[in-house]
Design goal:
The protein contains 4 helices and 10 strands, in the order H-E-E-E-E-E-H-E-E-H-E-E-E-H. With 168 residues, the protein is an alpha+beta fold. A 3-stranded antiparallel β-sheet has the order 3-4-5.
Length: 168
C-alpha cells in the first residue's frame, strides 16, 4: 500500500503499528526497510523527541500517541507534563495552546539572580531597588519597585496567579 498520499489517522496507525498508550510505546506490526516486526518505531532527535517516519514524512511520537488515544490529531501543542520528551505515556500528555505553553515554560535564570527570581531586575545598583514586571500577550506590565528581590518576586507571583490562569 502506498502511504505517501494518506493522511495519518487512527485507522492507519492501527494498520501499521502495535500501540500501547499506557507505556507510550509504538511498535511496527510488519518488518520492512531494515526494521524487524515488533521493533520500537522511530528514533530520538537531537532535542530529545522521538520521531517516526510514515510515508516519507516525519511525525512526533507524542502527537501520534495523542491521535491514537483521543481519535483526533492535535491542533495545538502537546505538553509533556513531566518535561521529559521521551516519556510519551498518554497520562503524561496534554493539549494546550502555544500561549498556555509559554506561561508554563521554565523561566530562564539570569547570571546574577537567585533561582526562581529571574523576572526581577535591579533598577539602579547603588539604590538596590528591584523592578518587577510580567508579560501579558506580549506586553510588559510594570508591577512596581521593591526594596528586596523577594518582595519583587512575590509581586510577580501574585500577578502570575491573576493573569496566567492556566499556569501550574
Amino acid at each position: 500500500m502506498n502511504y505517501k498520499r494518506l493522511l495519518v489517522s487512527r485507522k492507519l496507525l492501527d494498520e501499521l503499528f502495535i500501540i500501547d498508550p499506557e507505556k507510550g510505546s509504538i511498535r511496527w506490526k510488519e518488518p520492512g526497510n531494515g526494521r524487524r516486526m515488533d521493533q520500537e518505531a522511530g528514533y530520538t532527535n537531537d532535542r530529545g523527541y522521538c520521531m517516526i517516519h510514515i510515508g516519507g514524512k516525519l511525525h512526533y511520537k507524542h502527537r501520534l500517541i495523542w491521535l491514537y488515544t483521543t481519535g483526533k490529531y492535535p491542533k495545538d501543542q502537546i505538553k509533556h507534563k513531566d518535561h521529559n520528551f521521551s516519556n510519551n505515556r498518554s497520562d503524561n500528555l496534554s493539549e494546550e495552546t502555544r500561549q498556555e505553553q509559554s506561561f508554563n515554560m521554565a523561566v530562564k535564570q539570569g547570571k546574577n539572580e537567585p533561582k526562581g527570581m529571574c523576572v526581577v531586575h535591579r533598577k539602579r545598583k547603588p539604590h538596590k531597588i528591584y523592578k518587577a514586571y510580567i508579560s501579558i500577550h506580549g506586553t510588559k506590565i510594570h508591577l512596581g519597585y521593591h526594596k528586596t528581590m523577594e518582595e519583587a518576586h512575590e509581586a510577580y507571583l501574585t500577578a502570575k496567579k491573576q493573569h496566567h490562569k492556566m499556569s501550574v
